[in-house]
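Lab notebook, bench 4. Still working through the backlog of constructs that have no structural model yet. Next entry is a single chain of 663 residues. Request: give me the C-alpha cells for it.
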Amino acid sequence: MKSRWNDADAADKSLLELRVYTSRLLGAEPSLVLHGGGNTSVKVREKNLFGREEHLLYVKGSGWDLASIEGKGFAPVRMETLLDLAALETLSDSDMVRVQRSAMTDPNAPTPSVEAILHALLPHRFVDHTHADAVVTITNTPRGHERIREVLGERVLYVPYVMPGFVLARHVYEMTRGIDWSKYDGMVLLHHGLFTFSDDAKESYERTIALVSKAEAALPSSVAIVQPEGFSVWPSSDDLVRVATLRRAVGRSLGAPVIAKWDRSPVARTFTDRANTAEFAGRGPLTPDHILHTKRVPLILPSTFDDASVAASIDAYAADYRAYFDRHTTGRALTCLDPAPRWAIWPGQGAFAFGPTAARASVVADITRHTRQAILNAERMGGWVALPERDLFDMEYWELEQAKLGKAGVAPPLQGKVALVTGAATGIGRASVEALRAAGAAVVALDIRAEITSTFRGANVLGVRCDVTDRAAIDEAVSLAVQSFGGIDVVVANAGIFPSSQPIASLDDETWDRTIAVNLTSQMALFRACAPFLVLGHEPAIVVVASKNVPAPGPGAAAYSASKAGLTQLARVAALELGPKGVRVNVLHPHAVMDTALWTPELLESRAKHYGMTTEQYKRNNLLKVEVRSKDVADVVVAMAGPLFGKTTGAQVAVDGGSDRII
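Model written out:
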C-alpha cells in the first residue's frame, strides 16, 4: 500500500481541513474502509460564543463515508464530557449516544461515532481508525493474536475483541491507565481493525499505510484463478431463469422485492467452486460490523436448482436463522430481524448479493467480495477463524441497531423492483427512467444512441446501447438486466420513430418497413424476451407507450398510425395471455408532448403558425388548456407500473390534456 499524501494538497489547511484531507485518503482505499466503516478524529481548541476556550473532539459523524466526507461530516464534542464518560463504570450505549449529542457544540451536526470516547482517550491530536482487510484477516486465523504481533511488532498495542461502543472504550481506559503512549504508533483491535495516531496528520495517516503494508506483505501470494472449462460470457437462458427464481424466493422471505447482483467473475467462481466453501464461508464475516449488512452466513444454493429446491433452501436458511436468534435471546426482549439471506453462494457459478435497493445490494456485494478474498488468504494461513456466534449476535442485535427498527419510514412504491425502458435517452423514455428511479426502482435504460451508456449515473441504473430491431441485441440487454439486478418486473415499451409525413399514394417501402420494424415488430421481440422473467417478477407489469394516433389518426401518418395501432393490439393480446400469470399490460396514448426530440423549435413554430396560434397557445391546444410534458407521461408510466394499477390490465389511457377527437 502506498501513501497518497501530497504536500502541495495539504498546504495551508486548518486542522479540520487536514482531518478531511487524510480521511479521504483513507477512504480512497477500499481495503481500509468500506461503506461507512472506520472513523477518524481531530482534537482542537476553539473559543465559544462567550470567548471561552473549549477543548473539542471533531469525530466522524454517523452516516458519513470517509471517501467523500466534508467538514460538516464531523461532530464537535466537548472533550471534558467524553473523558468523564470514560470514567464511568457502566453506561448503556443508548445513554452514551444521548449524552454525546448533548455535549456537541453544533446541534445540527451528525451524531458522533460510537467510538468517540475511545478517540478522546487517545492523547494525540489525530486518530485514524480503519478496518484494514489485511490486519483483520491475520487476526482471523489460528494464533491470530500472536501472528499479528509478529508482523506489526511491539510499537503496536494489542486489544482483545470487545463489543464496540462504551464497553470497548471502558476496556481500553482500564487497559491503558498510566501507559507511556510515546512507545506506540498504533493499536490493533483483534477481529475489528487498526488505530494509528499522532499529533501530526501526515504521520498518523502514514503510520496506517506502513502498518497495513506490513500486514499485506505477510499474506499468502494471490490464489490461482481458474477459468472453468466451457465458460461462456453470456449465461444460459436456463441459468438466467434460475437467477430470477432465486430473486423471487429471497424477496418472498424478506417480504418485499429485492435487487440481486450476480458476481460471475473468475475470482468469485474460484471461491464458490471449492469443495469446502460452504463450511468455511459459514464461520462468520470479516469484521463484526459487516453482519449488519451481510448477516452471519451466506445461503448455500444447490448446484442446479428450480423453484421448489431454492424455496426449500431458503426455508431451511430461515429456520436456521430463527434458531440462531432463539439460542441467544434468553432473558432479553429483542425483535427478530427478517430471516432472508443477504448473500448466496452458487457452486461454480459465482455469488449473489441481495438488498432492498441497488445501492444496498452493491454494499453487500463489495463487502462479500472483500470477505471472500480474506477467507481464501486465511485458509492458506491455517484456516478462517471468525468471532464466536454469540459475539456476532450481540453486534447484529446491538441496542443501537434495535432502536432503529420502525424508524425507516415508508419505502418508495417501486423499491426493489427492476424496470427495463426502451428509447430511454431522450423525451418520454428518459423521463420514465428518472421517474422510475425516483419511485425506488432499479432501471435498465436501452437506446440506440451511444450516449445512453453515460446518460445516467448511480447504482440503480444501467445504460445499454441497443438497437431494438436486432433480436440478439434485445436478448443480450435482457441478459444484462437479469445479471445486474436479478430479474425484470416492469417493461416500458417506449422506443419508436415518427417518420416524415407521406400520403399513402407516395409512401415508400423503406419508410413503411422501418417504421413497422421499430414500432411494432421490435416490441413483439421485447415482450417475448422479457416474458420468462416477468412471470417470475414482483407484481409485474408492461407499460406500452402508444399514441393518440391510434384512436384518432391523421392524414400523412399511415406508417406511424398503423404501427402504433398494431402495437396496441399486440398489447391487448399480451394482456390476455399474460394476465393469468399475474402480468399486467396497459397502454397509454400521449399526444403533443412537445419537450421531446421530435418537436424542434422550428417544427413547433411552423405548426403553431399553421393553426394561427402562438407557440404557447399551440402547446396548450387541448380541452384542459394544459401543456403535456414528458414528465407528465412518465408519471402515468410509474402509476401503471405500481400498486395504483395493481388490479387493472388491458386498459388504454390518454395523456393529452383532453382531445375532442378522441372523446
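Notes after review: Residues 46 and 53 are 5 Å apart (CA to CA). Residues 509-534 form the longest helix (26 residues). Flag for follow-up if needed.
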